[in-house]
Design brief:
The chain is α/β, with parallel strands linked by helices. Helices cover about 45% and strands about 15% of the residues. The strands form three sheets. Strands 3-2-1-4-5-13 form a six-stranded mixed β-sheet, with helices on both faces. The protein binds uracil.
Amino acid sequence: MQMTDLIAKKRDGGALSTEEIQFMIRGYTEGSIPDYQMSAMCMAIVWRGMDDREILDLTMAMMHSGETLDLSPIRGVKADKHSTGGVGDKTSLILCPMVAACGVKIAKMSGRGLGHTGGTIDKLESFPGFVTGISEERFFDNVNRIGIAIAGQTADLVPADKKLYALRDVTGTVPAIPLIVSSIMSKKLASGADVIVLDVKCGSGAFMKTPEQAAELARGLTRVGRLAGKKCAAVITDMDEPLGLAVGNALEVKEAISVLRGETKGELLELCLTLGSCILTEAGFAADDAEARAKLLSVIDDGSALKKLAELVEGQYGDSRAVYDVSLLPDAAVKREVPSDRAGFVRRIEAEKVGLVSMHLGGGRVTKESEIDLAVGVMLRKKVGDRVEPGESLGVIHASSEQKAAEAAELLRQCYTLSDEPVEKPPFIKGIIR
Ligand code: URA
């Protein structure tokens, strides 16, 4: 078999066979197929697409390129959640303890943030002493004992995706549904959960800019999940503005805690109830959404979801007192309000740009190796649709120095577009695919 023949076949609109896909992924992972041939193939896939069978074969070939986790020693139903990436997305920190408090096991592999998007693993490291690189034995033991563990993805999980994603990133071949589906689902399937719920973001801060594109991706992801024998659902949500108010690692942890304490409601709680309902019903823990939502709200009301977060933190060597006393979490030296220079209604807050403000403050990585400052970030005070008076604060910059705060304040102001007319907030949840 020759890679050149496979590239030509895809270029001309043909479907690759199972064996051809396996040959290509094996060869690329081992290094016998060079980057230049693989980038030509990715571009052919961008233009020609793949049918469902090819996408499933590609996903399975990538999943088998490295180790897979066998979660069968863990008793009960195991669930995993994945978000396609956003700004201010602290959903996992809320949803996972809520679901675990309802009895569904959470065995989750999470990533670090890169660029303008954050990562759950970095956020969890805001808890003093928290270890994300726990041993497999500890991971299994924690899920069995307390019902939840969230660890960093190991290097051996889907090595094909690590190479391929880096290549796609620099060859203009990220936004192709077959490539995104196989990249995400190979990692989810390798992580071994029985139930997979996906939060597919759409809008200016997401890969998928329109609800139609996001729905197509969501359908692709759930189809592959089901074909691979998993219970799978997807929720399509808005990422035109940041999710919630906090953007920055420790700030997002504080906001997540306030939702788990029942103090913060709104879109963030709504998203967790929607994703959580999908998990509980797919896992057979609730007959319908109404029962699932009631169960999820009850674990907030009785404090058991917050307690589950404390158990998660303690189970991974962190200081769980910080769950009940957030002054123990990292706190920035400088806090600066950002006053609006005019009156109006917030029409737009560019999510990606807010993520970049946090990154410039030191809260995000420029390269995979960068050290990040967990304390810094942005707390928004105004969201789309809100009325703003001149001089009223749009948000607060949390910075390590006055100079950085001043620079970030100017950048945050530029993220906002105000209009003279009242602005209707678009629906936050744009669709659910079951
Ligand atoms: N997230 C991934 O893991 N892979 C993609 O291709 C896009 C988003």
